[in-house]
Design brief:
The chain is mainly α and 216 residues long. The protein has two domains: 132 residues, no CATH class; 63 residues, no CATH class. 72% of the residues lie in helices and 0% in strands. The longest helix is centred in the middle third of the chain and has 23 residues. The two termini are 31 Å apart.
Length: 216
């Protein structure tokens, strides 16, 4: 009970901090960050790592950048994403024009760090959506983080879903066999298409086995 109570306290504290920052970071970033924080520290951390990995691969953030620091700078800034023509311009503003108080940042507790990490991940995810011209949901990122997919596998899947006009939010339903046979076949076809591009040296049978293995 103590551990569960502590988990709830950290998550609710993080969500409260994110809600308080909505006027600073904008509703999309705050709402997405809240969805990420509600996953809990462990899964939210994995989701952040997956988002960061994809963000680096797409050139949205740099390898040495820290999602918690990005989130802290967003909370300190007097500007939000909507004030810029692109999320990259906003990130450049945070990177170059917002000064971090290292002493204050280093004293943040677990729930405050979860809030900042979730905000940083949300900003990066918004950049991913812009770059790929689609909608990648936190729920989709949670699933691919659990599967430990590579950045290229995640990007390939997102592109295939866009091409086939599928919703990344339905990826979890596909994995859990909660779609109709027709819809499930569309997802399978999209994933086969993605992995054919990612690993052209494999036979179609090997690709199909790989796609079936995603449900395991």
């Amino acid at each position: 009970m103590g551990l569960f109570s502590s988990f709830c306290s950290i998550v609710s504290g993080a969500c409260s901090a994110i809600g308080s920052a909505m006027s600073k970071v904008g509703s999309f970033v705050a709402d997405t960050a809240t969805s990420i924080a509600k996953l809990g520290v462990e899964l939210a951390t994995k989701v952040g790592e997956a988002i960061k990995m994809v963000g680096i691969s797409l050139g949205i953030i740099k390898p040495g950048e820290n999602l918690e620091e990005l989130g802290e700078k967003a909370m300190l800034s007097d500007k939000k994403p909507e004030d810029f023509d692109s999320i990259n311009e906003y990130i450049n503003h945070l990177r170059n024009e917002v000064v971090l108080d290292k002493e204050k940042f280093n004293s943040l507790d677990e729930k405050e760090l979860l809030a900042r990490s979730a905000i940083g991940a949300s900003i990066t995810l918004k950049g991913i959506n812009e770059k790929l011209d689609t909608i990648v949901t936190p729920e989709f990122m949670a699933e691919v983080a659990k599967q430990q997919l590579t950045a290229q596998e995640i990007i390939g899947t997102v592109k295939a879903y866009k091409e086939k006009e599928l919703n990344t939010g339905d990826y979890e339903l596909y994995l859990n066999d909660e779609l109709s046979i027709d819809e499930s076949d569309k997802h399978s076809d999209a994933l086969v298409s993605a992995y054919q591009k990612l690993e052209p040296e494999l036979t179609i049978e090997q690709i199909e086995d790989k796609v079936m293995g995603l449900k395991g």
